[in-house]
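[STRUCTURE TOKENS]
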Amino acid sequence: LALRALASVAPEKPALGAVEVSLNGKKVARLDANQLSVELHSHLRPGQNTLALNAEGTTGAYYELRLALPDPSATRDRAPALATNIQPRRASPGQSVTFSARLAPETSGPLSLEVPIPAGFQPVRSDLEELVRRREIAGYHVNAQRAWIQVEPGRRKQARWIAFRMVAPARCEVIAPAASIYPAANPGERRFGRPLRLTVE
């Protein structure tokens, strides 16, 4: 059992808020701009567990909880190692930034790449359409919060890259939550990139 709690904030002012994480009545972490996630596996106990999130201050907060349970009936496919980046990290309103994901060599079946869209940013759909046209991805679905990208089965000895642009909103500072990748048949075998701070000024 693996449970990941990720909290990030996107206030109008540069100062970022914090979130206190408690499990079974015991404080286990304080998430803020310096600590963006916490692994709770070692704190879980048999049976029922109670998780509480308490936002400090008055800033708006975004919470994301991920629960991964292995599926005994699923294939034994493993997700490839995932490295992600967004460049530039500092942008002007209306400027494009590029999300990129590097997938390590793999021999698994179909993969799903899940990319949270930073608050206020707009993905450039024509970039995703071009990836489909070039057969670098099998398909995608995108909304204001997230992009789901289907990656064809691979038999590659070299890493592959997937990249698309996002248009920056008005002045803000946000945390882009970590992207993740997993076998389509076994979401419990998920690997994560890393959260990143973006500044629009």
